[in-house]
Write a structure and sequence with these properties.
Helices cover about 15% and strands about 35% of the residues. By secondary structure, it is α+β, with helices and mostly antiparallel strands. The chain folds into two domains: about 120 residues, Cytochrome Bc1 Complex, Chain D, domain 2; about 240 residues, monomeric porin ompg (Porin, Beta Barrel), CATH 2.40.160.40. The longest helix has 12 residues. The protein binds heme C (HEC).
């Protein structure tokens, strides 16, 4: 019980492990793409090639109309050359996409086209693998603006059947052949506390507040940066304000900063599974006397895994230990976390909502006794903008056992997948 007097971690006096100034693990630390709603593969519609080509030529915005005309004109297919075969992935690509995205998928030189929007490089695995097929399907089906991209990326829903769009998306996949990069399909939505297995490029701001007990408001910034195909570095900076006792004075400041490295150890797109190992270290940057930190280094090795289930549902699990270098100042802990959730979309292509429930278990090894705490955290994550790279999540964390002195907390996060664009892009 040594820590309790000093008002330290897992939150009693310092108001719970919301956003960590009290050393408690705050708001989970890794990020998440909204589970891409997968689009069912629909059987091809028309059978008449020229009919499709003709429809193709009259749809879309004025820009895409001009493009289509150019793409299918005799200048593009000089006389004597066979027009592409629209029953093969390559033929569909050559007919519909090559004009802009180029033979090699890197995009043509912008001087050869009538727009200035930079073209994506589909051979760049770092970019290509993180996009799930469902997102590429939607952009190809509806055109760039459906995901906050430029309208120079035309819509093909009139020209190509859903089946053909699936085929051409499969063709896009051939440009990055390196399967060490985990695919975006494995990037299940991010829970508030449980750390995902998927490596991310993102910034998350989490806030939590005690609903009962002594006052505690805590925030935390978490910055994650991918490293090569399977790695990720992260920094976690908690800030907070808390009362050591109800009606007592408020104390504020920075908590124990944490740095970590994650590595994907196994992943399978077919099985919808990803598994990672992680080593994090908490540095004693927070003021232990004020209850904002532990005053010691804490090593935290853990593993986490994500699994896809039918109907856009998913599970995350995480388990690990916290090993303080000075056990006078902080307890050793064993923790385990589980999450189950599912994703709905508004309409076929709209906003994504992911309700989930986290179960958070921790065993604290104190001098005289072992304490087991169990919390539940129901929550809903939802996308905020059209590109879906800005998301929010609201949840309520409440203790299931040992409820005395463990406050219920409201928790919120705002997540920005910065690799997908600026914060104000794609609204
Ligand atoms: C008229 C030129 C043009 C044609 C033709 C075209 N695209 Fe695009 N495409 C673009 C541009 C420009 C972008 C980038 C838009 C942006 O970043 O705002 C883009 C982006 C995309 C993206 C989004 C990548 C991401 O960032 O996630 C996909 C997927 C895509 N195109 C697929 C296709 C497919 C498949 C075809 C053919 C069926 C095709 N495009 C044909 C111009 C084109």
């Amino acid at each position: 019980m040594k820590r309790r007097a000093a008002a330290t971690r897992s939150g009693r006096p310092c108001g719970g492990r919301v956003a960590g100034p009290c050393g408690g693990r705050v708001a989970g630390r890794s990020g998440g793409r909204v589970g891409g709603a997968s689009i069912g593969r629909v059987a091809g519609r028309g059978r008449y090639l020229w009919q499709r080509v003709a429809i193709f030529a009259v749809v879309g915005t004025a820009g895409s109309f001009l493009f289509v005309a150019a793409a299918l004109s005799s200048a593009w297919y000089p006389s004597g050359q066979q027009a592409p075969d629209l029953s093969t992935p390559k033929g569909l690509y050559d007919a519909g996409c090559r004009y802009c995205h180029a033979d090699d998928g890197r995009g043509v030189d912008l001087s050869t086209v009538a727009f200035n929007t930079p073209l994506p490089d589909f051979t760049d695995c770092s970019f290509a693998t993180r996009e799930p097929d469902a997102d590429w399907f939607i952009v190809t089906h509806q055109g760039g603006p459906i995901r906050g991209f430029d309208h120079s990326m035309p819509a093909y829903n009139e020209a190509y059947s859903d089946e053909q769009i699936n085929m051409v998306v499969d063709y896009l996949r051939t440009f990055c052949a390196d399967d060490r990069w985990p695919r975006g399909e494995l990037n299940y939505p991010r829970p508030i506390v449980t750390e995902k297995a998927y490596p991310e490029d993102e910034l998350v701001f989490t806030m939590g507040a005690n609903v009962d007990g002594p006052g505690g408001v805590a925030g935390a910034f978490q910055y994650e940066k991918r490293f090569l195909a399977a790695g990720q570095f992260e920094v976690f900076v908690p800030i907070g304000a808390l009362q050591l006792e109800t009606d007592g004075a408020w104390l504020g400041g920075i908590g124990d900063i944490e740095v970590g490295y994650k590595h994907v150890l196994a992943q399978s797109l077919d099985r919808g599974m990803i598994f990672s190992g992680n080593l994090a270290v908490k540095l004693p940057t927070g003021d232990a006397d004020k209850g904002l930190g532990t005053g010691t280094f804490v090593f935290e090795p853990f593993v986490s895994a994500g699994f896809g289930l039918p109907r856009n549902s998913f599970v995350h699990v995480q388990t690990g230990v916290e090993l303080p270098t000075n056990t006078e100042k902080a307890d050793r802990e064993f923790f385990w976390r589980g999450v189950v959730g599912t994703t709905f979309t508004a309409g076929r292509f709209g906003r994504a909502f992911s309700p989930m429930v986290e179960i958070l278990g921790v065993t604290e090894f104190e001098d005289e006794q072992t304490v087991n705490n169990l919390d539940l955290l129901p929550q809903v994550q939802f996308t905020l903008n059209t590109r879906q790279h800005i998301m929010a999540n609201f949840g309520v964390r409440f203790p299931v056992n040992n409820t005395k002195g463990r406050p219920t907390q409201l928790i919120f996060y705002l997540l920005w997948e910065w690799f997908d664009g600026g914060f104000f892009d794609g609204w």
